[in-house]
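We both want to read discrete structure tokens more fluently, so let's practise on a single case. Would you write everything just below, so we can both look at the same thing?
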Amino acid sequence: MVTEQWKTDQWFSSPWNYLPEVTEGFQIPDRIQVHDVTLRDGEQQAGVEFTADDKVRIAEALADSGIHRIEAGLPAVSPADKQAIERIVTADLPTEVYAFSRCLVSDVELALDCGVSGVVMEVPASHHLIEKAYQWPIQKAIDASIEATKYAHDNGLKVTFFPIDATRATMSELLDDLEAVATHGHVDNIALVDTFGVTSPHAIRYYTRRVKERLDVPLETHFHMDFGMGVANTVLAVAEGA
């Protein structure tokens, strides 16, 4: 039994991390799983483009390293991306393979064609982005999310609902919209998303707590590093039970 959790033959961190005054109120889950987004988010910068062979090799390396779940890509992007996802699925890796999709039934159908076990389903959470970028009425985004998540579930896919730009929504709007989708559509998990990396660690604790209070659904994290806070925010969200 480890008596000094902060010091082993592999690491040495601060004993302060384990003081009762620090850990009081922590709700760290018994098991934490890692979902890797390299094959999608990893391409979202200038000059980076993976070939299908690259993607298969990266997926194999991720599986070998013990990653629990791989987000293999967005089939709707191109036939080449769809083919790469199909190859990763048929490689029979010791990890779950998910596809990314928008909250559109047509995207879900492409994911089903690939043979993945689940989908991460994206829709804007901030009304600003829905109205200004998508130029949709708010209700259209909610209705599309309900229809697409239910369709995915009814066809045997696990569903992680992924509300992008959530941290620029008002909390009341976000919670009402999440509840509508969870109640009338289907979600197995909800991702806490900070698309622009603009949220402080203090606010991430508030964000996690409020979603947990409103919805009895397992939570995932997806925090960007624009201001260098992504890792710290993830640790704090996990301490709150994500």
Summary: Residues 138-154 form the longest helix (17 residues). The chain has a mean pLDDT of 95. The two ends are 26 Å apart (CA to CA).
